[in-house]
Specification:
heterodimer; A: mainly alpha; 66% helix; globular; B: mainly alpha; 1% strand
Chain lengths: 152, 146
């Protein structure tokens, strides 16, 4: 059951990216380019998504188990630290260079786009590099690699 | 700065409709699977060698990648234009990979789910990557006109 719901959620997410136009890097860059002719679409995509999702998250906040009885695994960290800020700035640079963020890039891989496959390959390499650096750090300080909590 | 809206490119209807679908997907994933629909976290978790988390991650990503395949059998796929060359895409991909993992999230995990949960961490992250993205586009398109 959780596998089927995950599959459907991923599928609907991908449909949303296609319908909203966010699978197109040119459109994303049109939003990030405030100095050129500006396309505000991405702001409305986020507004629509946040409005709908916030209803669901208002319900999850009161529950310890999901509607199908799985344990809630939503992040609880509230600390704003250097990795959050530096990571977000690095991500923003990559996003601004290509117009791809992870979700749309994977949808474009599903379209068979060679440039999207190149981007995702490099993105995976970047994530492997992160794992390597984190493991080396935790081996040095003998901290658990689990201390990095995922928000999403 | 004087911002001029590109009315020809602006698509408010499909943006809101697509956004609602993204929100519905994230909402159902939280309500049913109890997880954040954050793409970088779902992909990154596949690389941490914790085998128990592999099946649901793979299922979600399969659905995501299958979306254009099934959509294409029903109607014409929307046009996708990638202006960046291969070298830039490699650098951008590396930055997105490392950056989203250190930030514990990207546009979906922080920008959609986190803001919907009123998480101060996610709000901060979203402001940071938006500002950094805007600045990067300004530098590449206007300052150096790459």
């Amino acid at each position: 059951m959780p596998l089927l719901t995950a599959l459907i959620a991923g599928f609907v997410f991908g449909l949303g990216l296609l319908v909203s136009g966010m699978a197109n890097p040119a459109k994303v860059l049109g939003f990030l380019d405030l100095a050129g002719p500006w396309d505000p679409s991405l702001a409305l995509v986020m507004a629509g998504a946040v409005a709908v999702a916030s209803v669901a998250f208002a319900i999850t906040a009161k529950r310890t188990r999901t509607l199908i009885g799985i344990e809630m695994k939503l992040p609880s960290s509230r600390t704003i630290d250097a990795p959050l800020l530096i990571g977000s700035v690095l991500f923003g640079i990559g996003w601004g260079l290509a117009g791809f963020c992870p979700g749309p890039a994977l949808v474009a891989v599903g379209m068979g786009l060679p440039k999207a496959i190149t981007f995702v390959g490099a993105m995976l390499a970047g994530m492997v590099l992160f794992e390597f650096l984190e493991r080396r750090k935790s081996a040095n300080t003998s901290m658990s690699p689990e201390h990095v909590t995922a928000d999403g | 700065m004087n911002v001029t809206i590109d009315w020809n490119a602006f698509t408010p209807g499909s943006a809101l409709a697509g956004g609602a679908l993204i929100g519905a997907a994230a909402g159902m994933f939280a309500l049913l699977n109890g997880r954040i629909a954050g793409i970088s976290g779902i992909v990154g978790g596949l690389l941490t060698a914790r085998p128990r988390g592999v099946p649901w991650r793979a299922a979600f990503l399969l659905g995501l990648i299958m979306a254009p395949v099934l959509y294409g059998t029903w109607r014409h796929l929307p046009q996708v234009r990638v202006d960046a060359g291969y070298g830039v895409l490699v650098v951008a991909g590396l930055l997105v990979g490392v950056g989203t993992r250190y930030a514990s999230g990207c546009t979906s995990g922080h920008g959609v789910c986190g803001i919907a949960r009123l998480s101060p961490r996610s709000l901060t992250a979203t402001v940071a990557f938006m500002a950094s993205g805007v600045l990067t586009v300004f530098v590449t398109r206007h300052l150096f006109a790459l």
